[in-house]
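Loading example: each entry is read as two labelled lines plus one structure line.
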Amino acid sequence: MAEQDIALMSHLMRRAGFGASRDEIEAKAAQGYDSVVQELLNPETQEAVDEDLLYRYNPSYYEAAAIENNVQQWVWRMINSPRQLQEKVALFWHMIFCAGHSKIDSGQEMGLMVDIFRQDGMGKFDNLLLALSTNPGMMYYLDNTESHKTAINENYGRELLELFSLGVGMDEGFNYSEDDVKACARAFTGWNIAPPYPPFPHGRSPWEFRFDPADHDTEEKTFLGETGNWNGNDIIEIACKQPATARFLARHLYNYFVADEPQIPAWRLTPPRDQAAIEAMEKAYWESDHSIKAMLEVLFTSDFFKDEAIRYAKVKNPTEMVVSLLRMTGEFKGYKPGLFDYSQEPKYMGMDLMNPPTVEGWHTGREWIDSGTLVERINFASDILGNTELEGVQSLVNRLMGLGDKLTPEQFVDGCLDLTGPVVLFPDTMGQLISHASQEGELSHGTDAEKSDFTRRSGEMFQMIAATAEFQFE
Amino acid sequence: MVQTKKDPVLAVLSLSGGNDGLNCVIPRNNGHYRDARPTIAVPEDQIIPLTDELGLHPTMGPLKKYWDEGKLAVFVGIGYPTPSYSHFRSMDIWHTCEPEAIGTEGWLGRATKQLDPNSENVLTAVNFGRGLPRALVMDGVPVASVGNLETYGLLTGIEGENQRNDALEVFGRMYAPAIGTGAVMDYIHQTGTDALKGADILSTAPDNYTSSVEYSSTAIGQYMKNIAQTHLAGFGTRVLYTTSPYNGFDSHANQLQANSGLLTDVSNTVDNFMTDLREHDASDEVTLMFFSEFGRRVKDNGSGTDHGAAGVAFVVGEHVKGGIYGQYPSLEPSQLEEGGNLKFNLDFRSVYSTILEEWFGLEANPIVNGNFERTKFFA
């Protein structure tokens, strides 16, 4: 099989999913790029993840209230779901529609919110926003439960415009006014939940969305130039027809799936890295009646996505770092004890899943890296990838042996890089790895002693690769 | 500002889960206390008296010595307005000093920035435990976060000292400044180099440490030992932080037994820590604070207590002026907060402000987001 097909499929699986084992990548490359893209875009054509397996081992995960259980369950799905893009898209929306356990105080509500992203995340954007605006966790997190006809709380109304749909501005202009924020907030009055929180005196029970007509502002409102007796549904419909919303979505998709962009608050003044790519996705939005899937299809089949220049142009977020290594090495396929420890790793690296720092979410790109998180990333990656007892790593070692009876240090390093990515290194880094490998000379695997030496050296080389600055990118 | 022989250092032990203030600093002869807690009230004759009204839980004996020396400040009724009953949110508020908005910067991150504006020392602030508590987060402030001081470092999974040393040498060269790799790559190289430097320095701390003190083998004991080791190693670390195992103090059930164990551990460990520093003539420049994100409900639930509001906190050190600070909140049912909780009267930001100004000599208001009455607990 052509090397470039493998490299491209590996890129697709890293971006549209959480990576894959080498065996899977080769099988998918043989299946063909466009066919795999269609599978990813149509999760219903793929088998669902076997949740029964998880519940059988861990009945306590079922409708669990504890946040730890909900995080574990999600991480497990990311590792095991054949519907990879569905989970990746769920994470995408979780990083935009940020609400956190720190305030919501219920793992179950957080799990239900992520379910929305999973179910509606690739559909019509209007439907997703409506699901979000009727999600009890979100209504509580952004204080819509405190917004009343007689005393408006603007928090949800503002964030819906600023962070969830139009964005502050584009092409140096502003996308909405303070009056629009007020009109938006008024339209969402009465969108409430039950039972109220804090849960005195009877303790907590699951939330439901409740529309309270008596608390809804029925006066006329002017929103983005349109006047009427708007309710939240109308606001969403009007917001979704704005050019700014198409731009907002296209830039977010590009930033998450293609290459790191500047931080979001800079978008009003900073033009996109690739204007043509953004326009192509905007066009898909209009032609498909606001379909996220249509935008993703344009993205994954475009030349700008396949371009070699954007491979490894994105800093892996901590969840991607952890889950992709577990998938690459076949660790945690199915179920076994130890999920809790893995599920906490993204938190150690600065991404506490289901608990983003604020409604603005995590700062991405280079801001994932500081001296504390880098140590966690490097140690985790090199521990997993260098563990030659793992099934997936052992299979990489066997493949390396299959390259020939004798390998020069150069062939060995090339082989290791190819099998773990293919990872592309800067020449200086490459030189360091080759000179390290050269210290022990050529590798062979004829005798048992040579085999064991070969395995040890492979593990060490994988550890070094996992420790490179280049491996921080995907 | 307090005068110390060496640069002042703050150590913080965060008690995660909501420590039950009422069973920690106990209103000794308060009838409401006994009425509200038929299951878990501490018998009056077992309480360790501090004042006529208040006393410590029977397991907190090791702290009595510091009280008698006048070096233990006890804060009662401590909290903040409109209490949050969520562990995460309430701890966030203590970390960021932002009870209304959601903040991203921590008070000690800001303090560290003031103590070392040009990040000249990669170890000005060190956290013990995995992942950084938000108290220490601030953009551009490097903070080392140490899961285990004995094994802290990069590429710790590599077995064999020679192999690991080789690997670290390669690492050092791979992360050396490179030309033409782009701004983000440059930044990651610099960060990797800083991390390697910090780890190299920190890893020497246990080797140079000897002490007659034996800390408990619990996470609290071991992390406080690590804090002592790091301080004694003289790396110029000014802020040392650790958190007890996550939500350990969340005593909804079986509180009598669980809490006795935890309070024993905390009290012994604080005593060990102070004794250790004194043995090394290194206690003069250290102040230790321990606190929790909230107290617990006045009424017990038959086995434990649910999340509450105002709680207790402690500061111990050679320059501390011992005593009770704040008013003990009324336990009268009509005087309680919504849901049957104690009302706060001492804002935690008063305590922070005093530490920042009197101990570190920093301007407190911008760090704690406001002007709070100073609590004069330094001698």
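Chain A touches chain B through 49 residues (CB under 8 Å).
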